[in-house]
Each structure stands twice: as structure tokens, then as C-alpha cells.
Write the C-alpha cells for this entry.
Amino acid sequence: MFVPEKIMKQFSFFLIVLICLIACNNKPKNNCKPYFEFDELEHYSINISIDEEMRLMERDSLSYKELWLNDVLFQRKPATLADSSLLINLEKVGFLKQMVNASSYEAINTVFCEKKHKESFATSCIAVYRDVLIFKKKGKIIGTAKICFECLYHIIAGTTANTDDFGQSGDYQRLKKLLYQKPKVED
């Protein structure tokens, strides 16, 4: 069967356009490489008064439990995932645990990803890490993030991605909204 040349050219053009559309749709959104591939996300938060924070910072005659809370709230650790034992049993030191709804995972991944920013900013204050995220895959901890929404600081462990620019371009605000929106599924 003979196919006219004009029809073959149109078909070839259509095929090229179709391949380009498919290839473009498979690119990550926002040119963003996620820090973690997770299937479960735990959010721990604590509501603590400034007076209590100040007492903990002084570290005078603190109990073991208070020293542990001090480390979680103020120390720049865990630096590595192997050092994340500090974050186990956060509920024992006053943190409230909530499971993040799986419907928020895609949006969370647009915050926890390596991407370019037009501008970067920095703050200078004493970070108090009142929010802790535990990323899991098949029940195993694969990443952690301690967040101070007031100072816009973070400590992220478990990824090889560059996390230096985490939170830029309004990502801290987006993350806070995602974590504190309703509904959340509880344990």
C-alpha cells in the first residue's frame, strides 16, 4: 500500500509533537529533586512557653528528660541519620505526634527538594526546633527534619541532596500551612 508523502510528513510531525509532550510531562515539577522517597510521614510538635525555654537553656539542675528535651529543641543535631536516636520517643518529652495525611505528600515533596532559588535569605536568632518530621519508607526511618518556623532554620538528615537553600522562596510558610492544616490522620 502506498502512503502519500504529505500524509507521512504530517504523521511524522504529529509523532514528534506527541513524544515531546510525553517527555515534558515526565519532568519533575518545578525542576525539583525530592530529598526523600517516603511512604509515611510523622509530624511531632511541642507547645512550650518562653519561660520554660529559658529555663532549659540555662541547663542548671535539669533532669535527664529535660536535658533530652534541651538537645531536641536547641542543639544542631542529628547531623546524620545514624545520630537520629535523639528523635526516638519524642512523645516522652512532651511532643505531640500526628501522622501527615498521604494526600499532602506531593506538596511536601515540593518543599523538601533540591531546587534553584532566585534569592536566598538568612536570619540570626536562637533556633528553637519545635517541629520535627520523621520520614519513613516501609516502616524504616529514612530521613529527619527539625524545623524552627520562627527563625527559619532547619536540620535535615538522611539525604545526600544539598539542603542549604531549604525553605527559600516561601517554602517555610508553605510547609507550616501543610503541617498545620486539617485534616490529619492520627495514630
